[in-house]
From TrEMBL:
GO terms for cellular component: cytosol. This is Cof-type HAD-IIB family hydrolase. Keywords: Hydrolase. InterPro entries: Cof (IPR000150), HAD-like_sf (IPR036412), HAD-SF_hydro_IIB (IPR006379), HAD_sf (IPR023214). It comes from Blautia argi. GO terms for molecular function: magnesium ion binding; phosphatase activity.
Amino acid sequence: MKEKLLFFDIDGTLITEEDGTMPESTKKALMQAREQGHFLFINTGRTWKSLPERILHLNFDGYVCGCGTHIFFREKELLAARLSNKLCREVAETVRMYHVPVFYEASDAVYMDWKMPEAAKWEQTARDTFHVESGDIEDVLGSETKVYDKLLLFLEEGEKKEALLKYLSQYFFCIDRLHGMYEIVQKDYSKATGIQFICDYLGKSKEDCYVFGDSENDRAMLEAVPNSIAMGNAQEAVKQICSYVTTSIQEDGIYRAMKHFDLI
C-alpha cells in the first residue's frame, strides 16, 4: 500500500481519559503502521509543553499541537502561530474580571491565574490535566514578550458565561467540550488546518489521510478527510460524522481500525 498519513488525537483516542494508559494493541498497531511506511502524526489540542512523556517516547513522525498552531515534522519546527503579547495581556485582564477558572496554554508553559477562586484546587487540576506545574499569568501580564497560544475555561451557565464567550469570540473559536469546559483556540487555526499544512508540505492529498478521534475538538479534522475514524468511546455526535466507528480504546479500537482499512 502507498504510504498514508495517520493523525491521532491523544486523550480518549491513544490513551484512556481515566488513567492515561495505552493498550499494548495500540502500541503494536503503531509499530506495524510505521513498518508499512506510513507517516504517524499526533494531532492534539495540547500545546507542546503538555504532551505526555509516554507519547513523546513513541517517536511519532510529526506533531500538530495547540489545535494547528504549532507543527513539527521529524524534529523540525514548521509552523508556530503566536498571539501578540498585547492581545494576551488584554484577554487575561478581561477574563480575570469574570472570576472563572482558566488555564493559559503556551508552547513552553501552562499559566493559571492565582487570583481566581479556589486557585489551589485548580492548580491540582492543572497537574492532572497538563502534567506540569502551573506558571503564573502575572508573568505574561508583566512582560512585553511572553505569550500563550490558547485557553481552557470552566464556565457555569448564566449571563456571565454568555458575555465572556461573546467577548472571546472576537479573537478565538470557542469549542464546547461539554460539562462547562471550553477550549479557546486561535480563529484561523484548527486540527484540520494542521492536516492541510502537513499535506501541502509532504505533497499528499486528504485522500491519503486517516484521522482518529473521539471528542468535539476533533470535529474539524474528522470532517476534513474522507477516512475519519471515531473511537467506540467517542461522543455520539462525533460518531455520526465519521466514515467508520471502531471499538473503544480498551477493546483494541486503534488496532481494529487499522486492520479494517488495511493499513497494517
